[in-house]
Design brief:
The chain has helices at 6-23, 27-35, 44-65, 67-76, 87-105, 109-112, 123-146, 159-188, 196-219, 224-227, 230-253, 266-271, 275-280. It has one domain (6-108, 119-280). By secondary structure, the protein is an all-alpha fold. The longest helix has 30 residues, at 159-188. It is built from 13 helices and no strands. Helix 7 (123-146) runs antiparallel to helix 8. The protein is 71% helix and 0% strand. Pfam families: PQ-loop. The chain crosses the membrane at residues 44-64, 90-112, 124-144, 156-179, 199-215, 235-254. It is a multi-pass membrane protein. It comes from Heterodermia speciosa. It catalyses: L-cystine(out) + H(+)(out) = L-cystine(in) + H(+)(in).
Length: 281
């Protein structure tokens, strides 16, 4: 039997990474629903996820379907004019945004009537959210003010810079969103309420996403395709690093420490602070 063609290999890698990352959004809301509680998790994670995946959905849609953005990308990357964004990336982004909104809604007692922990979306998280929005508006203003032909000239400030800024917004939220949850786990000395299933699937998606990027660039015989899509490369690597941290917490550091599903112990209550206070320290 002849070996599969490079196109088939690339397709299988794309499907597998998208499937793993897409499935990773389900374990946490399912766990919350079964426990009828969000205790043990921080709302900072889904809050920043919503912002990040909104930015990622817009940037991915632009790279995939906008003739203007694709033309500007080709002009700036003549050795690799075809971007490495695929339909599976767009499908993943939109699907992820929807599931993030659902998970965030579970922190509303009016909508779900779940038991809530003491964690809140702190000032630091809101500051990052506002900062991302203000930064995006600033880039749009620069493109309109300094760009040639209303941002259509790729050699100056152009609309592709706005799309890159959206991608970096996703990168920033990805870096920050894990920190409050990792600290909450550290403070409570437990990962109870935090689904390890989503972490394992997330890790698999990050590894397969990097493999897909390498395969796409190798098939084009030009490794600048990797540097031309730094957001996707960065997301995969950051995901892997933090997933390893959570796995160490769950399987090594706090593997024998569990808390009750029906409430937080008094000592744990005193340890858990809001994510805003945590980051402020």
């Amino acid at each position: 039997m002849p070996p599969p063609s490079p196109e088939v290999v690339r397709f299988l890698k794309a499907v597998s990474s998208t499937l793993a990352w897409s499935l990773s959004f389900y374990p946490q809301p399912i766990l919350n629903y079964r426990r009828r509680s969000t205790q043990g998790t921080t709302p900072a994670f889904p809050t920043l996820n919503v912002l990040g995946f909104l930015a990622y959905s817009i940037s991915t849609a632009a790279f995939y379907g906008s003739p203007l953005i694709r033309a500007q990308y080709a002009a700036r990357n003549p050795l690799s004019p075809e971007g490495t964004v695929r339909f599976n990336d767009l499908a993943f982004a939109i699907h992820g945004l929807i599931l993030c909104v659902v998970t965030l809604s579970m922190f509303s007692q009016k909508l779900w009537d779940f038991k809530q922990g003491q964690e809140r979306v702190g000032r630091c998280i809101w500051g990052i959210t506002v900062g991302c929005v203000v930064g995006m508006l600033w880039v749009v203003g620069v493109v309109l003010g300094k760009g040639k032909d209303w941002g259509r000239d790729p050699l100056g400030w152009a609309w592709i810079d706005v799309i890159y800024a959206l991608g970096f917004c996703k990168l920033v939220t990805t870096i920050v969103k894990y920190i409050p949850q990792a600290y909450v786990n550290y403070q409570s000395q437990s990962t109870d309420g935090w689904s390890i299933g989503q972490i394992l699937l997330d890790l698999g998606g990050g590894i397969l996403s990097n493999l897909q990027l390498v395969i796409d660039s190798s098939l084009q015989d030009d490794w600048s395709g990797i540097t031309g899509n730094p957001i996707k490369l960065g997301l995969g690597n950051i995901t892997i690093i933090f997933d390893i941290v959570f796995m160490c917490q769950h399987y090594i550091l706090y593997r024998h420490k569990k808390t009750r599903d029906d409430g937080l112990e008094g000592e744990r209550r005193s340890l858990l602070a809001s994510d805003g206070e945590t980051l402020a320290r």
